[in-house]
Amino acid sequence: MAINLKDKIKEQLSENVQKALLECSETAEKYGFKIYLIGGVVRDLFLEKEIFDIDVTVEGNAIEFCHKLADEKYCKIIQVQDKLKTAKTVFSSETEIDFASTRQEFYPKRGHLPVAVRIGCSLQEDVYRRDFTVNSLAISLNKKTFGDVVDYVGGIEDLANKTLRVLHDNSFNEDPSRIIRGLKFAARFGFHRDKHTKELQEKYQREQLHKDISWTRIKSEIKQAFSLNTGKIFDMFLANGVEKLFYAQKPDIKGLEIKTLIDRHPVDNPWLVYLGCILKDEEIIDAFCFTRAEKKIFTDRDILLSENLSMLNSNYAIYKFFEKKSPEAVLVYYLLSKRKEALIYIEKLSKIRVELKGSDIKELGITDGKKIGRMLDEILKKKLSGTIVNKKDEIAFVKAQTK
Ligand code: ATP
Known about the structure:
The chain has 403 residues and is of the alpha+beta class. It folds into three domains: 155 residues, Beta Polymerase, domain 2; 171 residues, no CATH class; 45 residues, no CATH class. It contains 21 helices and eleven strands. The chain has a seven-stranded mixed β-sheet with strand order 3-4-5-2-1-8-9. Helix 16 crosses helix 18 and helix 17 packs antiparallel against helix 18. The longest helix has 17 residues. The model has no long low-confidence stretch (mean pLDDT 94).
């Protein structure tokens, strides 16, 4: 008899999500579609973990199904991808659900992005394109079978044993980003790879390293993994030699050291601090197609590493040296160089600001633009050396100069 997760759906999904799923169920019934919750959401229901994304697969054409939902006024379609026949929707309760058509995938070139074939195939055929058995489970949303788990690959048993198992021997050749996904799930859920999967991974890492693969997925998985900001996952990367997948280097740094620094000095992109400590290969940096701001972290890191710091003999000089560099790059530079000047900047100097604005100084009687600039710089110098402490001191200093 099929395992039924109706109760877990009730307990773990918000009322809004449940309402949306029932609307899907009604519509599927009315128009004769077969629909399933699929992938991460099913895994997380089993594991009783927080659920972020709701993915539904339609055995057939998901776009047609979403149009029916929209006709019934249950949701709005906000995005459609015609090639893959997928759609993003938002329900009246503001619940967002992604719908995909069942499909098979074909990899024309190892490690490159797949091409979808046989859109609308059976669910059983669809699950074989997935990464691990634990991510290949489905839950029926049709009325009569609502909550029934569909397991074609032994995912339930693997979930119970916390085992990550690929679906076929060619899995990592097809898509090496699955190696990083595996580490992410190991770090998040305490999963371990089954023996054969471990051997396949090691074989891939030994034999298949080449740069002619699509780097977008690798970058996206690294971003997700390092964004978890657990030092553990960084250590796992290095312990498994996974950094070699993207031609990165093994530094003499532990993940906990990076995490502690980030926790003390938060930055916008913690994942790039981890990556910045290991990725030097310029070809890969280019292949990752970073945004300008992301790329700057690597450029700034390299500029900092190439500079001679012996002339940094005052707080002002240290401040000016690091001031325009991206905060992530300064953290990376400190982790790699252990230069005390970087730590002084991170912990103390970067927090110092001149409180007066140019307009305040104008009001105090200095009207020449250049002079205002020099005055602001003088105040900064004095604040950095500690002779000016607060706004009151700043005003007093300006007044003294105008006498
Ligand atoms: P998370 O909680 O990290 O989002 P997830 O399993 O939901 O985990 P997604 O990236 O949202 O991860 O992917 C949804 C589903 O798509 C997965 O559960 C898996 O079935 C499939 N999938 C995602 N990436 C791959 C991949 N690289 N190879 C094969 N299947 C994949």
